[in-house]
Amino acid sequence: MRPFHVDLGIARAATLEAPSHDGPASWTEFRPTPMTATGETMPAILEANGLTKRYVLGRRMTEALRGVTMSVAAGEFVALMGPSGSGKSTLLQLLGGLDQPTSGSVVFEGRDISHMSDAQATKLRRERTGFVFQAFNLIPLLSVRENIALPFTIAGQNPSRGELKDRVRQVIELVELTGKEDHRPDQLSTGEQQRVAVARALVTRPSVLLADEPTGNLDYTTGGELLQALWRSCDEAGQTVVLVTHDARAAAYADRVLVIGDGRITDEIVLGRRVDHSAAPLISRLAQIGL
């Protein structure tokens, strides 16, 4: 059963008015609630509440985020879309526990992760979250299978036996690299290398997969293959995915697109779970709202 009700057509759900500096604005009351096919509400697995992030550079203070409130439901595919410098990558880092907010909170699986110790944050990233970045970060001397199994190896587990062996095989099938398990990274295309990185992030079965511009270094075809792998993990395995991108073609794979500008969520576009990932409707809708 697919986890979400699919909206027919694309609708702009809300426009967030710019918050004042007296306090963060919230668009929670406008946000559509993700639903199962039977009409049940999907619980939020990840929430941001009034997030701000400020950096001091010399005598200047830069506000990267200005009161962001949002949530992601279990099994949902959400894209954070905006131009360079909009704050989308900063938001992703806060959502994944890679950085701490200046104010506000991040609640992950019912737990506030905003101000964890380094040891707690490391444990969270190892056990509950998965990350994919533009850089593949593969070990050149390891095979595809060994690179994917690396999280288990680092944890002192044996990935060549039992359930862990099955997990590695399953994610290799998911990203369509069956038959290339023994290849080294330099024997793969760039798209295949990035799919290895996705498989490595998925093999631990994280509660949420966070991807920061994963198609940034890929051409049109290989980028599409990677996005398809992310979408399949969500549609077939119920994986929760949060994708940062500036590319409408990539964002079109998501169930919802949150448009970010100047450190705020300015618009939300509901796409629903679709087999057709054409970006044309999304591009048209973005044009209508002046983007």
What's the helix and strand layout?
Layout: E1 11-15, E2 44-57, E3 60-73, E4 77-81, H1 88-95, E5 103-108, E6 111-112, H2 118-127, E7 129-132, H3 144-148, H4 150-154, H5 162-174, H6 190-202, E8 208-212, H7 220-237, E9 240-245, H8 248-251, E10 256-261, E11 264-270, H9 280-288
Parallel strand pairs: 4-9, 4-10, 7-8, 8-9
Antiparallel strand pairs: 1-11, 2-3, 2-5, 5-6, 10-11
Helix pairs in contact: 5-6, 6-7
In short, what is this structure?
With 291 residues, this protein is α/β, with parallel strands linked by helices.
Any descriptors?
291 residues, alpha/beta, Rossmann fold, 2 domains, 11 strands, globular
Protein described:
- The structure is a single chain.
- By secondary structure, this protein is α/β, with parallel strands linked by helices.
- The protein has 2 domains: 11-128 and 206-288, P-loop containing nucleotide triphosphate hydrolases (Rossmann fold); 135-205, no CATH class.
- The chain is built from 9 helices and 11 strands.
- It has helices at residues 88-95, 118-127, 144-148, 150-154, 162-174, 190-202, 220-237, 248-251, 280-288, and strands spanning 11-15, 44-57, 60-73, 77-81, 103-108, 111-112, 129-132, 208-212, 240-245, 256-261, 264-270.
- The protein is globular, with a radius of gyration of 19 Å.
The 3D shape can be described as globular
Quote the CATH topology of the largest domain. Answer: Rossmann fold
H/I helix tally: 9
CATH class of the largest domain: Alpha Beta
Number of strands: 11
Helix content: 25-40%
- What sequence of helices (H) and strands (E) makes up the elements? EEEEHEEHEHHHHEHEHEEH
By CATH, the architecture of the largest domain is named 3-Layer(aba) Sandwich
CATH superfamily of the largest domain: P-loop containing nucleotide triphosphate hydrolases
The residue ranges in which pLDDT falls below 50 over 5 or more consecutive positions are 1-33
How far apart the termini lie comes to 35 Å
Spatially, the strands of the biggest sheet line up as 1-11-10-4-9-8-7
Beta-strand portion reads 25-35%
Largest pleated sheet: 7 strands, mixed
